[in-house]
């Protein structure tokens, strides 16, 4: 590898740091903002306190919205993981032409503008009486999350040798046993990755949620969006901080699971 | 664990991929305890045949019987067949012991019994003490033995191996071949073995099936196939050969009278079944059966190349017709490039075979 001139390396690194800074710092700014003592967001805060965290937890509407978000995200993730994994396995068995077409169909929710999906879901949800329900929002988010599972599991499946499955079934394993003992352990990192993306997709999703939330079942991002139009209080920063922390924790988990797979201990 | 396995019978088994015929309707009978090798060029249908027997492919026609059981419609898991894959197909997330014990575990064999049988087969394969090793930490040769152990531990009625040694280097391959032969002699069970490697086939097999273009071209012992090839493909594929185009004038009592253009002579030689008067055929002369200067009235030829291989030498011989033959003789330093020689052969060693 040829060494770059010093000025180029310094210049390159500085540029990269700047870009990263521009991307990340505004997001991280909400963390100190959430520890303001005053009822207005000062940056940096003039005095620190955890008072807005208390306020967040005391307020029934904020609490409910957090719980709603968690419920919706868990449900959406669970359904997306099951359906997405099945879809990925099915896609792998298809012939080339069919596979490309149907894959595109599964990935469509990632490409179609979310607001279009949201309008479509809004109409359909009204028809089947799912509008304003947790289940309705979960199903909506599930559709947005599905591509992440299909992609992640699809990639993981490429690492599963067809011959392992043949060997396992030749040794006496039925289809379910072979899936459970051979396929599943080898695609777990892909499933976990897909699940994390699904969860985060749902947890911070606002467009579909606004359309489907109704009055009583607001999710956290919907509540933030509503609040921010009324007043600019540090509680919003608290809510945002919680979302960031959750995202970081989930990505860390996904990282651990996939790196733990690649280098088996012992 | 002395179990010689069961006989295997295929009748009219065929396979097509779309319009492409990978296996023409094929009959094959393998005796209990026999070691049969499928030998043939790439794409000749060896793996297809093996996969049909194992139950990984469904035949378009025909029946497959193991022992007295018709398994044609049974899924692979109900056939009790052990298969060793070219790539081994070992389960990467399991230890050596778990890999070998997999077939026992899914059959609901008890833990204790499974442990006992796994350690038994480990020692049979000279892998004692490796049970708890992750599979990735085993060398190529060790993985090959684990794959074989995994197939053997379920006591299969038939053992199938698809080019199991092709991933090993040449030296290791020799060792494992001898090991396989020892295993088969001690614990012989019905085995079908696929290889590209003629020598390997000769070392291991009771019988060899030579395949080409989705068809078993000849099935027989090593001697049958080498000395009495059924057609020009088999003659050319097994060992080295000179194959000369001939026109058949007459066939009687297993001998054909043929016009050999290259020799400008008519000769009489033993003929394979399928050689018919009035048709073209091939005359097979093995390099080691050609004689130089043993008679005066042989076919005149000129030595155009002499390669010393130690005790033996290989000679390139140009006939007056322009045809070039290869001869292999005990080294004789008086034979040099450019010399004219008289070429002959023991009439019993020539053979007329159909073109295909
Ligand atoms: N799934 C498939 N679809 C279409 N054609 C196939 C398929 N599998 C095999 N074939 C074709 O069938 C023929 C026989 O294949 P097969 O794998 O049995 O050959 P082989 O004798 O095992 O060759 P090799 O020595 O290269 O392993 C080949 O021409 C191959 O291209
Ligand atoms: Mg093959």
From TrEMBL, chain A:
SUPFAM superfamilies linked to this entry: MetI-like
Could you tell me which species this protein originates from? Answer: Pseudaminobacter soli (ex Zhang et al. 2022)
Which PANTHER family does UniProt cross-reference here?
INNER MEMBRANE ABC TRANSPORTER PERMEASE PROTEIN YDCV
Which parts pass through the membrane? 12-35, 70-91, 103-122, 134-157, 190-215, 235-257
Q: Return the protein name.
A: ABC transporter permease
Kindly state one GO CC term assigned in the UniProt record: plasma membrane
Q: How does it sit in the membrane?
A: Multi-pass membrane protein
Q: Which CDD domains match?
A: TM_PBP2
- Could you name the domain of life of the organism this protein comes from? Bacteria
Q: Where is the ABC transmembrane type-1 domain?
A: 66-254
Q: Which compartments is it annotated to reside in?
A: Cell inner membrane; Cell membrane
Q: Which family does it belong to?
A: Belongs to the binding-protein-dependent transport system permease family.
Q: Which UniProt keywords apply?
A: Cell inner membrane, Cell membrane, Membrane, Transmembrane, Transmembrane helix, Transport
Q: Which Gene3D superfamilies match?
A: MetI-like
Tell me which Gene Ontology terms the entry assigns under biological process.
transmembrane transport
UniProtKB/TrEMBL annotation, chain B:
Q: Which residues form the ABC transporter domain?
A: 8-238
Q: Which GO terms describe its molecular function?
A: ATP binding; ATP hydrolysis activity; transmembrane transporter activity
Q: Name one GO cellular component term.
A: ATP-binding cassette (ABC) transporter complex
Q: Does the keyword Protein transport apply?
A: no
Q: Which UniProt keywords apply?
A: ATP-binding, Nucleotide-binding, Transport
Return the SUPFAM superfamilies for the record. MOP-like, P-loop containing nucleoside triphosphate hydrolases
Q: Biological process (GO) annotations?
A: quaternary ammonium group transport
Q: Which PANTHER family match?
A: SPERMIDINE/PUTRESCINE IMPORT ATP-BINDING PROTEIN POTA, SPERMIDINE_PUTRESCINE IMPORT ATP-BINDING PROTEIN POTA
Q: Which family does it belong to?
A: Belongs to the ABC transporter superfamily.
- Entry protein name: ABC transporter ATP-binding protein
**Native source species:** Pseudaminobacter soli (ex Zhang et al. 2022)
